[in-house]
């Protein structure tokens, strides 16, 4: 259960990290405006090590009950977000699979953004994270992200590796 909570804390802090799959040549102008989140999906592993003993957990997460939106503004290039969602997290540790729903209030922390090729860089109070725009039309937007996180505390370490996708619909 502690592993699951650490995973969720890590995911709650994150919005984007980096991936290099495709180059759809998104445009800055195409990102501007309001977007509603239509899908949140991710998968990864968490390895917890205590006193030299490691335990690996595989997990998947799928968003539901989504009421989230983000708005990309220009001059200055800022973004704001609102909303909440529930993630259905399925984790398997030592042959035991557990599925549980976790509600999240707040989507992400507001900040600034920049687009360079297919890479969107988000900067906020949590730092800088990147995502790759893999699809952009006048009505849809899809981004993939990778996230690696390491935390050490009181002789224990947690290493998390996550790959995820966000899908949006233009408001």
From TrEMBL:
It comes from the Bacteria. The keyword Cell membrane does not apply. Residues 31-142 form the Lipocalin-like domain. The keyword Cytoplasm does not apply. Keywords: Signal. InterPro entries: Lipocalin-like. Residues 1-19 form the signal peptide. This is Lipocalin family protein. It comes from Chryseosolibacter histidini.
């Amino acid at each position: 259960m502690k592993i699951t909570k650490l995973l969720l804390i890590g995911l709650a802090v994150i919005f984007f990290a980096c991936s290099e799959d495709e180059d759809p040549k998104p445009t800055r102008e195409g990102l501007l405006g309001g977007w509603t989140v239509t899908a949140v999906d991710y998968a990864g592993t968490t390895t917890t090590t205590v006193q030299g003993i490691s335990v690996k957990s595989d997990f998947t997460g799928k968003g539901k009950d989504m009421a989230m939106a983000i708005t990309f503004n220009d001059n200055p290039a800022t973004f704001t977000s609102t909303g909440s969602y529930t993630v259905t997290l399925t984790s398997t540790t030592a042959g035991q699979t557990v599925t549980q729903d976790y509600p999240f209030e707040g989507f992400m922390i507001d900040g600034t953004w920049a687009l360079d090729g297919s890479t969107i860089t988000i900067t906020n109070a949590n730092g800088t994270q990147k995502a790759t725009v893999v699809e952009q039309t006048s009505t849809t937007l899809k981004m993939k992200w990778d996230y690696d996180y390491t935390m050490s505390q009181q002789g224990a370490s947690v290493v998390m590796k996550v790959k995820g996708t966000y899908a949006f619909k233009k408001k």
